[in-house]
């Protein structure tokens, strides 16, 4: 036997008291409707009642049903899952700093560019996490927090899907990105805190130097794992489109600084990885997790999980209300 739903907002059920009022209002409207007088009413009496006469009482029923469905949706019915979530879980607080400079449009990961591959790999990486809190910092000429530490992986993957280049001022502010990431981890109580820096270039912007930021990470005992994306040297870079709308590629020199990435990792106790293809980036992220010690984020007990069941009621409310308005304005329209 399937489990019975429970209501997360049971106080909303008081709204069901509106239903009798709707029927009272419909009755009063019917009584207040002006009658039409005919000199030969017996002619109409012999002709019998039409289909519309029998369907007119359906209108207040549709409106009442729509209100009932809406109230039930607002009350948020939930079904308890048979699985129980263990709250004594182990996890890591991870902030990913992702480079959004225009150089991430380079096509050495063709048929896709560097950013497209990085977003795909990050989404796969998040999908495989269970108890790790993950945040996202994006940077180009400046750094910004795109998503704070969260366990809501669905929202985080949607955020990653939306990010793109040429939104921030161009440049590669690696130091600012690390400082912003550390600021997100500053109040974390997890024993394992880590920054994963994904970039394809050298530091050429920002107010904080990369090594100063690395010193901050060292003081906070936060290892920085650096992943250098791309092959370096001359790589295909988009230069617009031709007459047929095809992307025009030109070999362009994009500077990289693997020594800086190695120094940041060494200074903070992290590791440096080089990713020249999508699989290399996946391996780098997996190695980050494999090298970390697990820490407890929550202690004790167990918690049941619940599945939301309000969606059918919400759809029914909109459908019934739309049907009532349509019939009232067309086939069941009453004159005067």
TrEMBL record:
One Pfam family per UniProt: VWA
CDD domains attached to this UniProt entry: vWA_BatA_type
SUPFAM superfamilies in alphabetical order: vWA-like
The keyword S-adenosyl-L-methionine is annotated on this UniProt entry: no
Presence of keyword Manganese: no
Residue ranges of every copy of the VWFA domain listed in the record: 93-292
Transmembrane region(s): 12-28, 54-75
Record keywords: Cell membrane, Membrane, Transmembrane, Transmembrane helix
PANTHER family named among the record's database cross-references: LEUCINE ZIPPER PROTEIN 4, SPORE GERMINATION PROTEIN
Protein name: VWA domain-containing protein
Species of origin: Myxococcus landrumensis
